[in-house]
Amino acid sequence: MTDAVGAAARLQGLFEGRRLTPTQRRIAACLIRRAADAPYLSSVELARVAGVSQPSVTRFAVALGFDNYPALRDHLRAVAATGHGFDGPSANPYQRAVQAEIDNLRHLASLLTDPEPVERAGRLLAASRPLPVLGLRASAAQARGFAYFAAKVHPDVRLLDEGGSLLADRVDAARRAGASALLCFALPRHPRELLDTLAEARAIGLTVVTVADGTFAPVAAHSDVLLPAAVGTGLVFDTAGAPHLLGQVLLEAMCDALPDAQAHLEGFDAQAAARGLFVD
Q1: Which residues contact 56 (CB under 8 A, 6 or more apart)?
Q2: pTM over 0.85
Q3: pLDDT in tens, 188-236
Q4: Torsion-angle region of 261 (φ positive above 0: left; ψ -120 to 50: alpha; else: beta)
Q5: pLDDT-based confidence at 161, cuts 50/70/90?
Q6: 58, 68 in Cβ contact below 8 A?
Q7: Phi, psi of 104 (to 5 degrees)
């Protein structure tokens, strides 16, 4: 397989599973055709060869989850430099799914170049007493994992992983108990009930921090702080390696904002050792 074919395959993997407009699909097709020099085109040059406007190129980059076109171009250069991935015609579907997840993690690393959004989210979650953590259906596992670890350092974590008529009551109860923020995990597919719950949470004064699958996810309009992490779409069910890692990064930021987090962790370790909780 030539380098050009490999580069085109890697670009195709970047665009797969994205909801792109016809204009954005035209830009994507142009990048695939020009895969060898795509990482070196300016936004003006790409707009000219694709036959679109320069703002359309910027919107295309944002639709892929990047802050701007230079960030997308940096990502394309990084991908081009790692041309040894399992992304060619000879790779099987399992290898391509793993490679796509690796690409999602690289994208997440690029987004975290600016740590301020995650650090701000960590401060908001650390200050909330109690801290409700919401995740329904496919997102419930992410919410449970975060809540499990957060409870080791935060004094009052309330997991909301089941829908139904009591969900709004539980959000309201958390607010009346003193909660100032709510953390939501929102991965595809997005339940209508989740959107309604976030709208209600904001209406009663909670600041909503959301880990979502992209900046254009349906939950964006109901979130005060949106932290995007792409899901993999190459298998029958979505893979969530990047959202899971982003949740762990957010935990780290929350611990940094909790002055007694280390004391809580050391206390738990001492109790666990005394009880023989874990096998050495």
Answers
A1: 23, 24, 27, 47
A2: no
A3: 989 999 999 999 999 999 999 999 988 778 899 999 999 999 888 888 8
A4: alpha
A5: very high
A6: yes
A7: -60, -40
